[in-house]
Amino acid sequence: MMEEMMILEAAERLYFGELSVQETAELEQLRRGNADIDQMVVSHMLFLQQMDKFAGRKAVKHQLHSIHHDLVTSGAINEQPEENFQTPIIRFWGRYKRTIAVAASIACVTALSISLLSSLLSPANKQQNTLQQLSKKINALEYRQNVQNQKIDEIISPKISGTQISGGTGFLIDPEGYLVTNLHVVNAATNLVVAAEGKEYIAKRVYTDEGNDIAILKIEDAEWTPRNALPYRFRRSGIELGEEIFTLGYPRSEIVYNKGYMSAASGYENDTLSVQIAISANPGNSGGPVFDSNGEIIGILSTRDKQANEVVFATKSIQIARAVEQLKEDTAFRKVKIPAGSNSGGMNRVQQIKKMKSCVFIVKGY
Predict the structure, then answer these.
(1) Residue 88: φ, ψ to 5°
(2) pLDDT for 79-128, tens place per residue?
(3) Sign, Cα dihedral of 247, 250, 251, 257
(4) 102, 121, 140: which is the final residue of a domain?
(5) Last residue within a domain, chosen from 85, 101, 121
(6) Fewest CB atoms less than 10 Å from the CB: which of 101, 121, 217, 246?
C-alpha cells in the first residue's frame, strides 16, 4: 500500500510538472518494466485531468447561473410561473436544460480525450511511435509474391505445414540446444522452426520475459546434435563508448554480418537496461547477438529508431543471464547454463565468424 501511495504521489507531481529530470527518468523506467505501475500512473493522471475538467465545468455552470439570475433581475428575460402540476424533474429540466446540454457535450469530449490520452501517456505506446521492432512480419500478399518469385525457402518449411508469419534471429546460450531471441519475434506464433547452415529444427518456447522482450527456446528435434561447446561467452565488464561491435543475423535467408560501434551507454529514453549502437539493422535482425571485438556477447539486438539512421538498441546481456536464472527455477531446466569461456578472442574477424555462424539461427514463426 505504501508503494502504491508513493507511485500515485509521483504521478501527481509528474502531472503538475514538479518532478525533477532524474525522478521522471526513474518513474518512466518503472513504468516500462511493470505494466501494472504504468496503468496505475496513467489512470491517476487521467483522474487528475478529469478533476480539473470537472472544476472547470462547475465554474462554467456557476457563471451561467449568475448570468441567468442577472438577466431575470434586470428584466431582460421574463420567466413564466411554474405550473403546480410540473414535477421537480420537469422544473429542473426546464430551468437547466441548456446547462445540461453544455455538460453533456463536455462529457463526450472528456470520454474521447481519455481514450486518446491513454494511448499517448503510456511509454509502451510512445515507443511504438518512434521505435521499430526488427522482426519480420509476413502477410498474405508477401507470401504469394515470394512463392511466385520461388523464394520458398523463406516461407515454407519441410518441418511444419502452414504459412510463416514472423521471422528473426536467435543464438545458442547452451550447447544442448537452448537459444535466446526477442519475444516479439515468436510471440504470435503457434509453431517454431530454427535453422542454421541449411539445417532446420523444431523448437518451442520454454521461457518468456515480456518486460525485457526476451524469449528462450529449446530445440526439440530428433535430428539435432548438441554442440560440444560454444565459441563465445557473455562479457562480464561494461562496454565503453566508441568500442567496435559486430552483429550476425538473418535479415535475409542467409546469415549477414554487420560492423559498428558503441554510441551510448543507455538505450531509448535513457533506458539503463539497454545500450545504443551505431550499426545498420533491418527486419529479421531482431534477436541477434551483439559481439564486442573479442567475440564476447554484450547484448541482444531488438529495435531501431525510425527517425534516424544507424540508431539501434540492444538489451544488455545481463538481462539474458537473469532470464536463464529464472528459467532454472524450474527443476526441468536446472542444468541450463550460459557460456563461461570463449575460444575466439585471439582470432581475426573472418575466423571468428566461421566459428560463430553455426550457433546463430534464423527463427521462423508459423
Answers:
(1) -55, -35
(2) 555 444 455 555 555 655 555 555 555 555 555 555 555 555 544 455 55
(3) positive
(4) 121
(5) 121
(6) 101
